[in-house]
Design brief:
Elements: H1 3-8, H2 12-38, H3 41-46, H4 49-63, H5 65-81, H6 86-110, H7 112-150, H8 191-219, H9 225-231, E1 276-280, E2 286-288, H10 290-294, E3 299-306, E4 312-322, H11 323-330, E5 338-343, E6 349-353, H12 354-357, E7 363-368, E8 371-372, E9 382-384, E10 397-403, H13 410-413
Parallel strand pairs: 1-10
Antiparallel strand pairs: 1-2, 3-4, 4-7, 5-6, 5-10, 7-8, 7-9
Helix pairs in contact: 2-4, 2-5, 2-8, 6-7, 7-8
The structure holds the ligand Nc1nc2c(c(=O)[nH]1)N[C@H]1C(S)=C(S)[C@@H](COP(=O)(O)O)O[C@H]1N2 and molybdenum atom.
InterPro entries: Di-haem_cyt_TM (IPR016174), OxRdtase_Mopterin-bd_dom (IPR000572), OxRdtase_Mopterin-bd_sf (IPR036374)
Protein name: Molybdopterin-dependent oxidoreductase
Transmembrane segments: 21-40, 52-73, 93-112, 124-143
C-alpha cells in the first residue's frame, strides 16, 4: 500500500466520524439552497439573492466531491469492518449513490448551455427525483440516530476504543451505522445534533408542498389546461375564438409541465384593466383594449419552451399576433434600437434588439393549445420567443416600448446571460 494511503488511513475511525459530520452539513446546505431554488415563491422575494444562492448551491455541490473521494480512499477498510452488516452496507451504498447521482446531474445542470435542453431536462429529472427520495432518507437517517442517542442502554460506550483499529462497539451495533465507531454521546442530544434535527424538520416541512407539486407534474401528462383555465380568474370577454390550427392544436398538445414562475404575486386582469400599448420611438402610439386586441389578425405556431433551470415544455401550440406586425402598425422610428417589454406585474421587463424582434416566430400569444392562457402562465397575453430561453418570454405583457438605449432585463440584471439564444 502506498505510504500516503496508509498515512491517510491512520486514525481512520475518527476520520470517518468527521467525514460523516461534514457530509451531513453539506447535504443540509444543499437541501436548503436547492429547495429555495426550486420554489417559485422565493424568486420575487430574493431577487438578486437568488443568484448568490445558486452559486452557493453549485460550489457546495462541487465541494461534495471531496468527502466522496475521501470516503473512497477509506472505503476498503470500512467495508471490511461492515462484514455481515447488511443494513449498514445498504445504507452506505444508498448514501453514496445519492451523492454521486446528485453530483453528476448537478454538474450537467450547471453546464446547461453546453449540453442543450434535452440533456438538461433529463438531468433535472434525475436531480429532482434523487432529492425527493434522498431527502426523506437523509432526514430519517439523522432522526433515527437521534433516537439511538436517547436510548441509554445503547449509549454504553466502552472506553479506549475510539480511533484506531476499532471493532464496532457491541452495545451500539444495532444502530451503529458503522460511521460512528464507539461514538461518545455524552449529552442526550448534542447542540450540533439538535440543530441538525431542527434543520431536518424545517426541510421536511418546507419540502412537502414542493414535492407534491412535483409528483403531480410528473404523473400528469403536463398541465391540465381546462382545469387551469377553469380555476383561473382570467376570463376576458370575448374569449378569442381559436383558428382551426389551434383547435385541436396542430402540435398535438404540449408535452411537459410549466413551472409557474413569477417575481410578484400573480397579477390578474379582466376587461376593465387590460390594455396593450406600443409606445416610445414610434410614429404612432397604439393602445388596444381587450375587444380590440382579440380582433387583430392572429397566427398559429408550434414551438418548444426551455427554461435555463433545465425544464422544458415541448410542442406548444401558441396562437397570437406576430410582434413584427404590431411594430409595423405603430411604425418604428429610425432612432429606435431595441424593443423593451414591460410585464403588467409592474416589475418584470426584458428586451430584444430590433433584428431579434423581427423574427417570424416571436409572437404575442393569447391562446395555448387552443385555450386562453391562464393567469399563472402569463395570460391574458404573454410574449413567446421560441429561439431563446424562456426568461425572454415576458408574462402578462402590458407595454411594448421602442427605445434607443440598451436595456438589461430583470433576470439579466441578476446574472442570466444577455445572450439568451438556445
Ligand atoms: N412577468 C414575468 N415573466 C416571466 C417570468 C417572471 O417571473 N415574470 N419568468 C420567466 C422565466 S425565467 C420563465 S422560465 C418563464 C416561465 O413561464 P411559466 O411561468 O409560464 O412557466 O417565464 C418568463 N417570464
Ligand atoms: Mo426561466
Amino acid at each position: 500500500m502506498a505510504g500516503w494511503l496508509s498515512k491517510l488511513r491512520k486514525g481512520y475511525g475518527k476520520k470517518l466520524v468527521s467525514l460523516h459530520a461534514w457530509n451531513g452539513w453539506i447535504v443540509v446546505v444543499l437541501a436548503f439552497t436547492g429547495l429555495i431554488l426550486f420554489q417559485g415563491l422565493w424568486r420575487g422575494i430574493l431577487g438578486e439573492g437568488r443568484v448568490i444562492i445558486r452559486y452557493v448551491h453549485i460550489i457546495v455541490g462541487i465541494a461534495s466531491l471531496l468527502p466522496v473521494v475521501y470516503y473512497l480512499l477509506l472505503a476498503g477498510k470500512h467495508w471490511k469492518q461492515l462484514r455481515g452488516k447488511t443494513a449498514q452496507k445498504a445504507n452506505v451504498i444508498i448514501v453514496f449513490a445519492l451523492l454521486v447521482g446528485w453530483l453528476i446531474s448537478g454538474l450537467l445542470l450547471w453546464q446547461f448551455r453546453a449540453i442543450g435542453p434535452r440533456w438538461s431536462s433529463n438531468a433535472l429529472l434525475v436531480h429532482d427525483l434523487l432529492t425527493w427520495i434522498g431527502l426523506p432518507y437523509v432526514i430519517y437517517h439523522s432522526v433515527t440516530r437521534l433516537k439511538w442517542l436517547k436510548e441509554p442502554h445503547r449509549r454504553t460506550v466502552k472506553t479506549g476504543r475510539v480511533g484506531e483499529g476499532l471493532a464496532v462497539d457491541a452495545s451500539s451495533a444495532g444502530r451503529n451505522d458503522g460511521l460512528h465507531p464507539a461514538a461518545k454521546p455524552t449529552a442526550v442530544m448534542s447542540r450540533a445534533t439538535f440543530i441538525k434535527t431542527a434543520v431536518g424538520a424545517g426541510i421536511a416541512i418546507a419540502a412537502g408542498p414542493s414535492f407534491l407539486r412535483w409528483l403531480g407534474n410528473q404523473l400528469g401528462s403536463g398541465m391540465d389546461y381546462s382545469a387551469a383555465v377553469e380555476k383561473d380568474a382570467n376570463r376576458l370577454i370575448p374569449a378569442p375564438s381559436p383558428l382551426p390550427a389551434s383547435s385541436p392544436p396542430i402540435g398535438g398538445g404540449s408535452k411537459g409541465s410549466f413551472r409557474v414562475y413569477t417575481v410578484t404575486p400573480i397579477p390578474k386582469f379582466d376587461n376593465s384593466n387590460f390594455s396593450l400599448t406600443v409606445e416610445g420611438l414610434v410614429e404612432k402610439k397604439l393602445q388596444w383594449n381587450w375587444e380590440q386586441f382579440v380582433a387583430l389578425k392572429r397566427e398559429v405556431q408550434v414551438s418548444d419552451f426551455h427554461c435555463v433551470t433545465g425544464w422544458s415544455v415541448y410542442s406548444n401550440t401558441w396562437e397570437g399576433i406576430k410582434l413584427k406586425d404590431l411594430l409595423r402598425m405603430a411604425g418604428v422610428k429610425s432612432s429606435a434600437k431595441m424593443v423593451k417589454f414591460y410585464s403588467g406585474d409592474g416589475v418584470y421587463t426584458d428586451s430584444l434588439t430590433l433584428e431579434q424582434a423581427d423574427m417570424d416566430d416571436v409572437i404575442v400569444a393569447v391562446l395555448h393549445d387552443g385555450q386562453p392562457i391562464p393567469s399563472d402562465l402569463g395570460g391574458p397575453v404573454r410574449l413567446v420567443v421560441p429561439k431563446m430561453y424562456a426568461y425572454k418570454s415576458v408574462k402578462w405583457l402590458k407595454i411594448i416600448e421602442l427605445i434607443d438605449y440598451d436595456h438589461t432585463g430583470y433576470w439579466e440584471e441578476r446574472g442570466y446571460s444577455k445572450d439568451a439564444w438556445i
